[in-house]
Amino acid sequence: MQNATLNRRTEQLAALGRLLDVLDRLRAECPWDRKQTLESLRHLTIEETYELSDAIIRNDLPDLKKELGDVMLHLLFYAKIASEQGAFDVADVLNAQCEKLIFRHPHIYGNVQAETEDEVKRNWEQLKLREKGNTSVLGGVPASLPALVKAMRIQEKARGAGFDWEQPEQVWQKVQEELAEFGEEFSHTPADAPADAARAERAAAEFGDLLFSLINFARHAGINPEEALERTNRKFIQRFQYLETQSARQGHQLSDLTLAQMDVYWEEAKRLAGQQSV
User: Fold this and answer.
1) Number of compact structural domains in the chain
2) Residues 66-86: what's their mean pLDDT?
3) What is each CA distance from 50 to 11, 67, 70, in whole angstroms?
4) Average pLDDT in the 26-48 region?
5) Could you tell me what percent of the chain has a pLDDT over 70?
6) Predicted local distance difference test score (pLDDT) of residue 188
7) Which residues lie closer than 8 Å to 123 by C-beta, 6 or more apart?
8) 248 located within any domain
9) DSSP label at 258?
10) 178: exposed, middle or buried (C-beta count within 10 Å: 0-12, 13-18, 19+)?
């Protein structure tokens, strides 16, 4: 068993070396690869990361293997460009990552005690503060993160510092409070009232508070809100495309159908999806 593991590690290192060799040749001989810079690769890497995420959501392991390769190529490409600039190379990147992991896992590589996941996360955040010199626990949250993901990270980091609700019931109470405050912005406004920029701004602020509290509750309930919302997005797309397909088969344009007629197809899609999941 040990020999098999060692042999596989040798194969893994050889595969990494082969990819580095391929990248070196492409960088030297391919016009497109020669042209790339850190900046030009950035948006392509973002796209590849989303494709990787899609494969994970679909639980498509063959596609996941392909997308992991694409992302890995990009990571090595960045290191290659940096080495050309005399900044660092892939060995520097990997060694730095190893050192960081060892430093942030003193319960494995040192004598710190951490028996639970929460204790590990708390230690991790404290070590990051010391390591990066941040004056705030939230200083490490990237400003460019999508808002929903950023809210999750903010809440997780605050929890790591001990700032969190004690019981899920308290969070649900906060959701109800924020929902009431959001509804309050509309309950006293006549339907024919002219647009009011100040009222719209208040409503947007209250809606943001409501979303933040819902994300907080999802975290306490063990639900990843990003994944939950994505599942709902895919479910909506599937049902709406069924509506489009079936109405077209019967010679109808969606624009000619009433909402009640569309709802017939929608309910059919829901019923069929329920039968497939059984």
Assistant:
1) 2
2) 97
3) 29, 9, 11
4) 95
5) 93
6) 63
7) 104, 106, 107, 112, 114
8) yes
9) -
10) buried
Which pLDDT score, from 0 to 100, does residue 18 have?
Answer: 97
DSSP string, 67-113: HHHHHHHHHHHHHHHHHHTTS--HHHHHHHHHHHHHHT-HHHHSS--
Cα–Cα distances in angstroms (integers) from residue 79 to residues 42, 63, 144, in the given order = 13, 25, 22
pLDDT at 278: 36
Residue 206 burial (CB count, 10 A): 19
What angle in degrees, to the nearest 10, is found between the helix axes of 61-84 and 90-103? 110
Helix (H), strand (E), coil (C) string for 34-73: HHCCHHHHHHHHHHHHHHHHHHHHHCCHHHHHHHHHHHHH
| Tokens, residue 72 | 């890995």
Question: Taking all residues of the chain, what is their mean pLDDT, rounded to a whole number?
Answer: 89
Is 200 or 147 the better-scoring residue by pLDDT?
147
Q: Which range of residues forms the domain containing residue 71?
A: 2-91
Is residue 112 a part of any domain in this protein? no
Give the pair of three-digit tokens for residue 164. 């969190």
Residue reference for tokens 């990997």: 94
If one counts every other C-beta atom within 10 angstroms of the C-beta of residue 217, the result is: 20
Mean pLDDT to the nearest integer, 224-243: 91
- pLDDT at residue 174 in the model: 95
> What is the distance between the terminal CA atoms of the chain, rounded to a whole angstrom?
41
Of 91, 124, 144, the residue that ends a domain is 91
Q: Is the pLDDT of residue 20 over 80?
A: yes
pLDDT at 135 over 70: no
For tokens 């309050």, the residue is: 184
Give CA separation, 194 vs 72, 128, 184, 190, 191, in Å.
54, 50, 17, 9, 9
CATH of the domain at 55: 1.10.287.1080
Residue type, 189: T
Alpha carbon distance 267, 261 (integer Å): 10
